[in-house]
Amino acid sequence: MSDSPTIDIFLHENKPEQSFQELLTALNTQAIPLLTRKGTVLQYATDEIKYCYLLHKGHVVINRTIDGLSLNSETAPFVFGFSMLSDIPCQLTLCTSADAVVSRLPLGEAMDIIQQHVLWEPLSHVMVHISSRIFTHCTRLSQPGAYGAIRYLLFDLSLESDEFRKSESVVNYVQNRCFLSRSGIMAVLSTLRRGNYIEINNGKLIKINYLPTKF
User: Fold this and answer.
1) Which end of the chain is more exposed for a tag (fewer CB within 10 A), N or C?
2) Which CATH code of 3.20.20.70, 1.10.3720.10, 1.20.120.450, 2.60.120.10 fits the domain covering 17-140?
3) Residue 195 carries which DSSP code?
């Protein structure tokens, strides 16, 4: 895999796993398990109560409510909600995978637990990671031209877990994360596949052989 645009901080292996696990362990003592299935939509706030969600297994996709654009996908372990502490209305939802195991508690209670157990350091690590993921999304949208955006998203998809890549077609992954037409995306992917730049089987990404900066 050559010429990857993904900066080291965006790589999944740089995710602060220990910090996420510390928060999950402490917060799970007060969290309530949720019954979810593939495609269950979780709201960050209901009836004016803001929630903190704990992802123990599987993955979720973060979607923007105004247009349905998928911002990022996150894999367990993960904690959601701490970026929603302001009074600004949340414009995001979480969409669960088939194997997702999720629990939640009110955000206020989560903050009390953070304070009681002095978990500010792991929380800061998590918030830095979330900020880097947001920057990744902004970088993706700012790519020049259709190929630039698709190239970036292909590298992004290659960094997802095996389970995620098996559950999501390349076309859907790209289309849900940018404003390109489905026909345009398929045309670029078809050309890349014929040129042996990428390997796709049953619509799923198998391997990236080489993606030039310009195409």
Assistant:
1) N
2) 2.60.120.10
3) T
